[in-house]
Each structure stands twice: as structure tokens, then as C-alpha cells.
Design goal:
Blueprint (H helix, E strand, L loop, with lengths): L1 H10 L20 H6 L6 H11 L7 E2 L2 E2 L15 H4 L9 E3 L5 H14 L5 E8 L8 E4 L5 E8 L5 E7 L8 E5 L1 H13 L10 E3 L2 H5 L8 E2 L2 E8 L11 E8 L17 E2 L4 H4 L6 E8 L2 E10 L9 E4 L7 H5 L2 E4 L18 E3 L1 E7 L4 E6 L8 E2 L1 E3 L8 E6 L7 E7 L2 E2 L6 E2 L5 E8 L10 E4 L4 E8 L9 E6 H14 L15 E2 L3 E9 L4 E7 L4 E8 L6 E6 L8 E3 L5 E7 L6 E9 L4 E10 L1
Parallel strand pairs: 3-6, 22-29, 31-33
Antiparallel strand pairs: 1-22, 2-21, 4-12, 4-15, 5-6, 6-11, 7-10, 7-12, 8-9, 8-11, 13-24, 14-15, 14-17, 15-16, 16-20, 17-18, 19-20, 23-24, 23-28, 24-27, 25-26, 27-30, 28-29, 29-30, 32-39, 33-38, 34-37, 34-39, 35-36, 35-38
């Protein structure tokens, strides 16, 4: 199917687009059996090639892994600078609002006590703290265009990271909120003075609409350190000296396994996944460390991207029901990708250097087999992997592996075999049709934070369950229980077979665009390798205006306008904001049909609304 899609795209003469992040699917004579006969240390690439070939079978009961094996890497568009830098405003040190200290030792003792009372394998790493931030706590700056900028520093002493919650949002058009670590400003200034640091402009998470924040449950992503700087830009005419939000809570993150405090990290008995190239270059790239906010705290688990029968890179993500089981928690999800060492037993990367995706949508969940099935909303990095799966019962004694983030630490891998029966997590079940699968470990256990990690057949690298509970640890490398994918599958089979798109499909060919009348069209979806094409009639002397609205942080959407399938076309729009706008005024002397294309500059999927007028 991938070859057919690629061939169809070749017909589209104006697909003179940015180099795709994804190369061809590597179809060829390599078979899955051949790959399994190779030494484990050299099988990673062959697993990916063979799995991609096997995907063409389209068996609705299973899928094989799919690699983002692109050789061409897109250069990201320059993001917006933080407002004070963009405005070239010499902001003085921001006023500081400091909360009272947190008793971290008491929190750790509380966590340890809870872990002794149960076998669930998620871990708390942050607590919620109430905040009552007022406009008078910060400083206002008047801008040359009549707007204003407000800034403040919020500190929770000794926090390793912060997440901020905004409520009662009423951002007017042209307003913007930026949140970042003021330490980044100091490092950037040091670099400009000495050249000793490669950090350029400080990174900031920025929001241009209330909908953008609300889609994430009102929560920002993680700001490293114990202080977050907030900058708010209000346009001319906004209500004087009033904040368009309430900042009512902050998550104080008190555990970081990458710090020098070794008691926070995983035990010493684990296997570094990077030491096993057959896994580190394939399935490991599907696995993410996830953090989310629930019941006033922040928790860590593990999960993985799953391939679907449509092979379209829909960002489906599987984790455990006991980790999170409602959409409110899913919206707060923050996925940390590629949190693994670069070399076997090497140093892990810092969490601040990782690409993160913020926000997800709950699609299905169930307690019986302890699964939660999500769609990641935030943009994905390149180089990931969509794990394969099987809905069949896996015979007892099958060699298996699990890749996970013990204690929220960098990726490890555990090896064992599928047992005949398992006590489950609440009552006795067995593997043949039971709700759980027992794995007896031969090398490497799991820990709190490993919850939601998949169990994979070693021969096909297909998932057949996700971690629920069990007694294993470095003190007891014994066994764990995984929710059975055989039981989960009926609840998500329709999603896995069809992928996800909108009701205007098919409209992915420039020669047969969807003809529309002027108006507003909501809940549209554009996907990797599946652009959207539209057409309308523009009478002579009239002007066509096309406006797309979306969340840029969920995927960079661009658009271009054409008479037919010619290139370079009439006009285009490729900003780094939440909106793209194109205008065409027909002065040709006759009526014309005009087409436009909506496509992803990067990422695999995003939703948008589209309004166009002819007047």
C-alpha cells in the first residue's frame, strides 16, 4: 500500500514539497524468517525491513512494527522568540513570587509506604500546590503599539521542575502567554559573552489561544528547575491592568532519576536497552516515559506507539488503565521521547534535552485487562517507531521482552518467558483466555514507573500485553503480570483497522480536489503522506480568502494555492503560528476554479478548522 501511495503522490505535479521525514517502507525480498536467523546484535534494521514488508498483508488480527526510517531530516522552522526578545524590550529582573518550601523527605517516605501496600507500578513524582497569583505581583510594560507586557517569576523552592495550571482563560486576539525557565536567559547571555555554551535563544512554551491551553487541561509542559518565568502580551485595547486568566496551581516535581541523587533512579540490576541493538533501534523508539497530572499529583508511567492496519502513522498510544483512565488526565499527558543512552551503558541524556509531546485524547480504557488507549495530540519528533501487535493468544514458554522506564529512569529492557498461568492482580486467571499474562523473568525486573510498558514476542517483536502489576524488583527478579492484548483487542479493533481521518476524505489528489462552497468547515484532519485538496470557483473581480486555524504545537500545517496542479502556484502560507491565511484576487478577466492544498510540514497528524470566503 505504501508503494501505491508513493506512486499516486508522484502524479501530483505540484508536490514540489519539503523533503519528507519518512523514506519508503523498504519493501523487498527480506523476510521476517530471515531476520530471525541473524545474530541478535545485527537484527534491528532487518526487523524493521521485514516488519514493513509484512505490513502489506493487512491481517486485521495483527500488525508489525513500522519505522520512521527517513534519511532526510527537515530543518525545523524558527520558532517565535519569547515576547520580550521579539519586542526587543529590556526587561528588568521580573518580580519574584516564592512559595513556601516543600518537605521532600516526607514525600519520599509517603511514596515508599504506599509502594509497600500494593504492587501497582506507577510512581508519583510531583505534588500540586495552590497559587493565588495577582496582576499586582508582576510588572507591566507599555509597548510601542499600545499593547502591554506583564512578567513575573514563580518559584517553588528546590523543585526539579514545574508545571503551571491556567484557568478561566479569556485571551483576546493577539494575546500571548510564554512560560520558560529564567535560567535559560542566563545561559544564553553567558554564551553570547564567552561562546562556551551551545544554547541559543531560550526555549519557551507559548500559547496564543484559550483553546490551546484548554486542550491540555490548562497545564503547561515541564519547566526545568524551581522557577518559571511568565510573560503575557496583551494587545492594544485589552482591559487595563487585568490578567486574562487565573493561575491557580503549580505541580512541584521532586523526583528526577537523571540527577546525581542515585536513590531517585532505577536499581543497578537493569539491562540498558541500548546494549541490545535488535531492540534499541526498533521497538525502543516506540516507547516513551509519560508524566501526567491526576488527583492533585504528577505520576510517571510507560507506554508505546502502536501501528495500525492502515499503516498511516496515526499516533495511537497504549499504556495501563491504572496509570490513567479518563480524558482529564490524558489531556495533561507529557511524553518524553528517546530517553535512552547513546551507547551501551553510557550516560543518559538530560530530561531538558528531550523532545516532548504534550496532550493526548482518551479513545478507550478498560479495567479487566488494565489498558488505556490514547491518541497523542502534541507533535512527534522524527525517528520514532510504531510497534506491532498480535491479538492472538501467545503460547506459554514464548521468549519475550519488555522495554520500560523503571522509576522514571532511562529505558531498560527485561527478558523472560510467558508462563502457563498467572495469579493476576486481583484474582486467579490463566493465560489461555484470561485477562492477564504472567511473565517469568530471566534477566531484568520492572519497577514503579514501568507500568504500561508492553510485553513483546522476541521472535516477531509484536506486543501482546501491557504491564499492570507484580512483585519483581532488583531484590526479586521473579515475575510480573501484563494485561492481555487478546482481551483488549475487541475494544480497539475498529480504531486499529481504520486509522483516523475526517468525513471529507478522499481528497488527497490534486487532480480530484473536494469542491466546496464558501463557509466554515470544522474537525478536519491532515495526516502524513495524505494531504488535503480543495477547490472553489472565484468569479472575475472577486477575492478568495482561505484561513486555517489549528494548534501549531500539535503539528506544523502549511498550505498553498494553485490554478491546477502547477508549481510553484499562486501563493502559499507557511508560518509558525496557529493560523495560515492565503488571499487571491481574480483579475484575469474571466471566472476561474482555484485549488488549494493543506499539508504537514512536519509531524504525522493534526486537526484544523477552515474558513474561506469569496467576495
Amino acid at each position: 500500500m505504501a508503494v501505491l501511495v508513493a506512486a499516486k503522490k508522484e502524479k501530483n505535479m505540484f508536490l514540489d514539497r519539503h523533503p519528507t521525514r519518512f523514506s519508503s517502507l523498504g519493501l523487498g525480498a527480506v523476510t521476517l524468517l530471515t531476520s530471525l536467523l541473524l545474530p541478535a546484535a545485527s537484527r534491528g534494521e532487518d526487523f524493521a525491513n521485514a516488519a514493513n514488508a509484512a505490513n502489506t498483508s493487512r491481517d486485521p488480527r495483527q500488525a508489525f512494527g513500522l519505522a520512521d526510517d527517513s534519511t532526510a531530516t527537515l530543518l525545523a522552522k524558527p520558532g517565535r522568540l519569547i515576547p520580550s526578545h521579539e519586542l526587543k524590550l529590556a526587561v528588568l529582573p521580573a518580580p519574584l513570587v516564592s512559595l513556601s518550601p516543600v518537605n521532600r523527605d516526607a514525600l519520599v517516605r509517603e511514596d515508599d509506604m504506599k509502594s509497600l501496600l500494593g504492587l501497582e507500578k506507577r510512581v508519583r513524582y510531583g505534588i500540586g500546590r495552590n497559587v493565588a497569583l495577582r496582576a499586582a505581583d508582576g510588572h507591566w510594560y507599555d509597548l510601542a503599539d499600545g499593547g502591554r507586557l506583564w512578567t513575573v517569576d514563580l518559584k517553588s523552592p528546590a523543585a526539579l521542575g514545574l508545571r503551571l495550571h491556567f484557568d478561566r482563560l479569556r485571551l483576546p486576539a493577539g494575546a500571548r502567554i510564554a512560560v520558560y525557565s529564567p535560567d535559560d536567559l542566563d545561559r544564553a547571555a553567558h554564551y553570547r559573552r564567552t561562546g562556551e555554551d551551545l544554547l541559543g535563544e531560550p526555549r519557551a512554551e507559548q500559547f496564543e489561544s484559550a483553546a490551546e491551553l484548554q486542550s491540555k487541561g490548562g497545564w503547561t509542559g515541564t519547566v526545568a528547575g524551581d522557577t518559571a518565568r511568565i510573560e503575557v502580551v496583551l494587545p492594544r485595547g485589552a482591559k487595563s491592568r487585568a490578567l486574562p486568566f487565573v493561575l491557580d496551581q503549580v505541580q512541584h516535581l521532586y523526583r528526577d532519576p537523571v540527577s546525581l541523587d542515585l536513590e531517585k533512579g532505577a536499581g543497578s540490576c537493569h539491562n540498558d536497552v541500548t546494549c541490545f541493538s535488535a531492540w534499541s533501534t526498533t521497538v525502543a523508539n516506540a516507547v516513551a516515559r509519560i508524566g501526567f497530572v491526576e488527583n492533585g499529583g504528577s505520576f510517571l508511567c510507560t507506554g508505546q506507539l502502536l501501528n495500525n492496519n492502515n499503516i498511516d502513522r496515526t499516533p495511537y498510544f497504549l499504556t495501563a488503565h491504572h496509570c490513567l483512565s479518563d480524558n482529564a488526565a490524558a489531556q495533561t499527558l507529557e511524553a518524553f521521547w528517546k530517553f535512552q543512552t547513546a551507547t551501551c551503558n553510557g550516560a543518559p541524556p538530560s530530561l531538558g534535552s528531550l523532545f516532548t509531546s504534550t496532550g493526548a485524547t482518551l479513545l478507550a480504557t478498560g479495567a479487566t485487562s488494565d489498558f488505556t488507549f490514547l491518541m497523542i495530540d502534541g507533535a512527534l519528533p522524527s525517528g520514532l517507531f510504531w510497534a506491532g501487535w498480535t491479538s492472538s493468544i501467545v503460547p506459554a514458554g514464548t521468549a519475550s521482552a519488555s522495554i520500560h522506564h523503571p522509576a522514571g529512569d532511562f529505558k531498560r529492557i527485561s527478558f523472560g518467558k510467558n508462563a502457563l498461568a498467572t495469579p493476576g492482580c486481583a484474582s486467579g486467571t490463566n493465560v489461555n483466555g484470561g485477562s492477564h499474562v504472567r511473565i517469568n523473568w530471566s534477566s531484568g525486573p520492572t519497577e514503579q514507573g514501568s507500568s504500561g510498558a508492553g510485553i513483546f514476542r522476541s521472535d516477531t517483536q509484536q506486543l501482546y500485553g501491557q504491564l499492570h502489576c507484580g512483585p519483581s524488583s532488583c531484590a526479586d527478579v521473579s515475575n510480573d503480570s501484563y494485561g492481555s492484548f487478546f482481551v483488549t483487542f475487541p475494544s480497539i479493533s475498529t480504531l486499529l483497522q481504520g486509522g483516523s481521518d475526517d468525513s471529507l476524505e478522499p481528497n488527497d489528489n490534486c487532480f480530484t480536489p473536494h469542491f466546496l462552497n464558501p463557509g466554515t468547515y470544522n474537525n478536519l484532519i491532515v495526516r502524513f503522506n495524505d494531504d488535503d485538496y480543495y477547490r472553489t470557483s472565484v468569479p472575475n473581480g472577486k477575492t478568495l480568502t482561505v484561513t486555517l486555524n489549528f494548534i501549531h504545537a500539535n503539528g506544523d500545517i502549511d498550505t498553498s494555492m494553485h490554478y491546477d496542479c502547477e508549481t510553484p502556484g499562486i501563493t502559499s502560507s507557511g508560518s509558525s503560528s496557529n493560523q495560515e491565511v492565503m488571499t487571491y484576487h481574480n483579475t484575469t478577466g474571466s471566472d476561474h476554479d482555484v485549488s488549494w492544498r493543506v499539508f504537514l510540514f512536519s509531524d504525522t497528524r493534526n486537526s484544523y478548522s477552515m474558513t474561506f470566503t469569496v467576495q
